[in-house]
Design a protein that fits this description.
single chain, about 350 residues, seven-stranded mixed sheet, alpha+beta, two-stranded antiparallel ribbon
Length: about 350
Amino acid sequence: MKINIRLATTALFCLILAADPALAKQKNPLQPPPPAVPVGDVDAVPLDAPTPPMLEGTGQAIDGDEIAIGDVIFRLDGIAAPLMTVPLGPEARVALQALIDGQRLTCDVLDRGADAQHLSGVCRIDDDDVAEAMLAGGMAAVYRPSIRSDATSRERAARYDAAETEARGRNLGLWTKPPEAEEIAIEPAPTVEPTMDRDLLRGWLIQAPFLIFLTLAGLIALFVASNRKRSRDDQLEAETQALLAALLGEVLAIRAAAQAAFDSTASLIQDLPIPTGQLAGLALPPATVFEANAARISSLPREVSVDLVQFHARHKVVSPILLQASALRCEQLRAFLEALIQAADEPMVRAEKLLD
């Protein structure tokens, strides 16, 4: 009877433990405490937004192989264009802008850079590949650090190679070759023996007084015309000097503004865009004197006129880029400003020698 009571008591105790595990854990001094649940850091940086598979919209060319689409800088995959600071760099940007100007772009994203604002891939206008068009015009070269193994990438690589080969064959853009001078055979003229016609000599002697009078009249007219021409030349030279001084002052003002913008961005983080608070100080003065006197530039010495045209062409490229400074890395913007500053030195040096 005692055994049955003990068995009943043990069974009752097991039922109590099964019905209330928490009570069993409290009464068991050997049970370890539960592990702590980790709590996330409230100051942790949020994850980047996922990269979109495709972008659509209109764009603005930054250089020969990069397009600003909204806040995104999109690089054309598979090609490389000259930098803006080297020969044909501005021309490549102008060619890309002419292709995409006002057109709706459909861009497949293949890769991303340091953040979601720097992507790369293939852009099309309708069914036309923009990168392939740049290759066909000779304004870019094929650039593939690695070739993807899928059939679409191989087919695109073959098209790009064919477009570059055709541009090379036609000597377009980057592949332009100087024409070779053709050898010209110069044959000596046949020797003519001198002869004297006595009748012709007699006629010249009879008309000698009249010829002398005509010669004197011609010399007098030439002297008068020479004096008039000298007066016009002096006036033209004075006007040229004044125009050159005005153009030089405008170049100096643009260069000073570019230098100030270059210096003000030296302390910024170079691989990030320009802060919004400093965008207002990046504007360049307009080239009003050059634009108002574009038809008279050819009257200047050739070396100076070429330097001025090249400088203002670069100014025309850099000015709209500064308006999009928020979409550019600081180091890119500083490269544009430095190239503009260097382009101003040549016309200034040449013009100062002419004005001395």
